[in-house]
Specification:
single chain; 111 residues; mainly beta; two-stranded antiparallel ribbon
Length: 111
């Protein structure tokens, strides 16, 4: 059946990044070194609050509201201001019907 997928993402994570394009003159990463030091990673998956491919949504019909609560501890090295949640409503074969993204501790309505 249908599933709910919920991921925690973080922006602004600085880590070295392997650079396979360091020698490719057509690449925007040309000459930046390998690895690229302190490369900024955005939209990085930090945690899957649901099962990675989603949790079953049982017994909900069309136009019925579905609600679930996920609890997790955010590690101290995560920057709270840079965290977002993404929620996706997907089919059994992982086709996304709808999705929404927003900052943590906020309410964002589906459209």
């Amino acid at each position: 059946g249908d599933k709910l997928v919920v991921y925690l993402l973080e922006d602004g994570i600085l880590y070295d990044q392997e650079n396979y394009y360091n020698e490719d003159q057509t690449s925007p990463y040309f000459g930046l070194g390998n690895p690229i030091p302190n490369f900024e990673h955005n939209h990085t998956l930090r945690m899957s609050l649901s099962a990675p491919l989603g949790d079953d949504i049982a017994g909900s019909g069309a136009l019925e509201e579905y609600s679930v609560t996920y609890n997790s501890t955010i590690p101290a090295d995560y920057v709270t201001e840079n965290l977002t949640l993404i929620a996706m409503y997907v089919s059994a074969d992982n086709l996304a019907y709808n999705a929404q993204v927003g900052p943590i501790n906020a309410v964002v309505a589906y459209q």
